[in-house]
Amino acid sequence: MPKFLLRASSFLLAILLAAPLAIAQTAKPAAPPAAAPAADNPSVIIHTSEGDITLQLFADKSPKSVANFLRYVHEGFYAGTIFHRAIPGYLIQGGLYTKELQPRRTHSPVQSEADNGLSNLRGTIAVARGADPNSGTAQFFVNLVDDRRLDYVGSQSGLTWGYTVFGKVIKGMDVVDKIAGLPTRALGPFAADVPNPLVVIEGVDVVGEASPAPASSPATPAGGAKHKSP
Known about the structure:
Elements: H1 3-26, E1 43-48, E2 51-57, H2 63-74, E3 81-87, E4 91-98, E5 124-127, E6 140-143, H3 158-161, E7 165-171, H4 173-180, E8 184-187, E9 190-195, E10 199-206
Antiparallel strand pairs: 1-2, 1-10, 2-7, 3-4, 3-10, 4-6, 5-6, 5-7, 8-9
Protein name: Peptidyl-prolyl cis-trans isomerase
EC number: 5.2.1.8
GO molecular function: peptidyl-prolyl cis-trans isomerase activity
């Protein structure tokens, strides 16, 4: 083969081989698939007479429980209620009784979501309830220790059903521990465990939202509210 034909063939082959590479180098990369939007897990601040406690709520795991809690928050329900139960090494509980130890009227109970896979670890907040797993309303408790005895293990009974975790403390755990360390006494309908002095919830704000007005009827009786949970 003449040299000029060999050179021409080689040149043509080089162009053909280079063309796909050039196209690959200049083509825009495909856009990555759009990520699923993150679930809206709002934060709230519980303002107490002992300091502030900031919570992150797990709306992605406990949507009904979070919606129930936020309903009371937006209504100003918690302003003026107390933490009526504090047991070191266990929990602090509140959100229903006023300083006069009168329960407020609540909405219908929320369905339990204790089978959501979340565990009752230190700093988590959970729905307080009676013997019926689906009897929780406004009351909540904060775990002081990892307490997996309170987790869901089955639907056989109220004991095995466990307690719904719907958030965790992200700031102010020192305030929680301070409340738990206060002296306690018998007071009103409670035979023991009421912090002395009373720890008042002055209000609860959703981060990024305006503060709600206090509830208009602060001491309306709530039927069947006098239960211990857990």
